[in-house]
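Hi support team,

I submitted a single chain yesterday and got back a structure, but I'm not sure I'm reading the token output correctly. Could someone confirm the output below corresponds to the sequence I sent? I've pasted both exactly as they appear in my results page.

Thanks,
R.
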Amino acid sequence: MKITLLTGKTFDIENTFDFPLIIKSSLRIKRMSLRIDHKCREVICSVPKFCSKKRIVEFINTYLDWIEEKLSNLPAVKDFEDGEHISLFGKSVVICHQDDFGAPKLIEDKLFVGGDKAFLHRRVKDFIKREAKKEFFRRSQILADKLQVKLSGVTIKDTKSRYGSCSTLKHINYNWRIALAPDMVIDYLMAHEVAHLKHQNHSSAFWQTVRLLDVNCDEGKSWLSVHGNELFLYR
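Hi R., thanks for writing in. Yes, this is the structure output for that exact sequence:
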């Protein structure tokens, strides 16, 4: 297994680990540690900058039982299924597979998905991503107008660790999985990223702006801290 450190140094790990492993190295790190990234389903090993390959391998091998236990206890990755009830833009929707090959269509509280059942997950995911681009842009533009700031555009991403991001070019990226969250969570995340159009930091002024755009932002933020990882179960 080849590991790349944050410093850019690359070396071969002689031992083979059957799990995703990320090595992080920095002068600020004083001792070795391990943690599990639940969203990315990776093992993160933090080490001092000049730690040797031998020490890293020995350290990881010491905690193999702990690593295997933690990884085995992670919830299984999910696919969308026929008959499954999901939250879509704050509305309860049931997925309904049908044999025709028409494009997925949302009619009241039913999402009809045609074609081979083996491709149902991908077709539902593609539908959500298309609708999210329209819905998230609409909501973000309303909030941007309220702040009188420019919104260059919205892109839907498939990242494994971030809900969203805002560039210095006034462009916002959103994770498609946000569409599966309760409406108050979507409101909070929209307010959070749009506030970054005005404040490219997390200062007190930034949080005041978030609360201006969403007075119930604390509720959405709290939901994410408890249930946010559940959104990333969908592959």
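A quick pointer for reading it: The chain has six helices and twelve strands. Let us know if anything else looks off.

Best,
Support desk
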